[in-house]
Amino acid sequence: MRLTLRSLYRKSPKWVRTAIISIRRNVSAKYFTHFSQLLRFLRNLAEFRRFGGRVTNFYPILDDFKDGAGTASGHYFHQDLFVASLIAANNPRRHIDVGSRIDGFVAHVASFRKIEILDVRSLGEIGHPQITFIQRDLMVAEPGSGEITDSLSCLHTIEHFGLGRYGDRIDPHGHLKGFQNLVDMLEPGGLLYISFPIGNRDSVYFNAHRVFHPTSILKWPLRDGPLELKQFSFVDDSGDFHRNVPLDASLPELLYGCGIYTFCKS
Questions:
Q1: Which of 70, 147, 161, 263 holds its CA 20 to 30 A away from the CA of 40?
Q2: Where are the chain's structural domains?
Q3: How far apart are CA 108 and CA 95, in angstroms?
Q4: Is there a contact between 199 and 159 (Cβ–Cβ < 8 Å)?
């Protein structure tokens, strides 16, 4: 006789039927096409009860057993740790961040120093003494914000400026305006850590993000002339990190890498 969910349900004790009802209520229907995952859950449940475990509620998670311990690669993993380590080594007087990931990079930096964050989006109560927040649109020059810090970061953010994805106003040149305003915030001798997606050519994937050629940022117009590139690193398409490499024709072909730049303002 073929074993089906219906026959299993009818012949099962009450605690099994309760578990199946819970799964139907809480788990996407796609899991019912993977009968083995459901059987694994029920076997584990039966074993837990046989060892004396008492189940008070059901919260079925059917596929985490296939996952690894985590992800130690990719854009955010490498850029957040790397740039945080650079800031720790440089120990600036003041560090301001624009739009970077709060539960990644900002949290790393806040573990060892104060950090101020600016973002076009609102943010609720932070509740951490090392972090302060100001809501600001970096595409708009703000009076009194010139040369205010010796250390500034903007990680995986500027590629979104002007595309409207995060409630910002539409501006095809938003990334250029934002870059100029970032540079204006830096004191002479200050360091800018900036990252964004890099690929074989400049592209706009509206309204998700832009992808830039690795050398395009060197040509972005600035009122007071170009910045000095101190260091370039990147994450390749496979998620692997390449630290402090030449920014030249020797770079591999990329579709969606992550360029990580350290600039100094003269």
A1: 70
A2: 5-66, 75-264
A3: 13
A4: no
The b-or-e profile of 116-145 (16+ CB within 10 A means b, else e) is: bbbbbeeeeeeeeeebebeebbbbeeeeeb
What topology is assigned to 75-264 in CATH? Rossmann fold (3.40.50)
CA-wise closest residue to 243 among 67, 87, 79: 79
Of 196, 24, 19, which is closest to residue 99 (Cα–Cα)? 196
For 235, the 3-state DSSP assignment is: strand
Q: What is the C-alpha separation between 21 and 37, in angstroms, rounded?
A: 15
Mean pLDDT of the 242-256 span: 94
pLDDT tens-digit readout, 181-201: 999 999 999 999 999 999 999
pTM of the complete model beyond 0.70: yes
Among 210, 205, 145, 151, smallest CA distance to 180 is for: 145
Are 192 and 226 in contact by the 8 Å Cβ rule? The answer is: no
Question: Cβ distance 259 to 202 under 8 Å?
Answer: no
Q: Is 176 exposed, middle or buried (0-12, 13-18, 19+ CB in 10 A)?
A: middle
Highest-scoring range by mean pLDDT, 25-39, 47-61, 98-112: 98-112
Give the separation between CA 129 and CA 94, rounded to whole angstroms: 15
Residues in the chain: 266
Angle at which helices 14-26 and 35-50 pack, to 10 degrees? Answer: 130
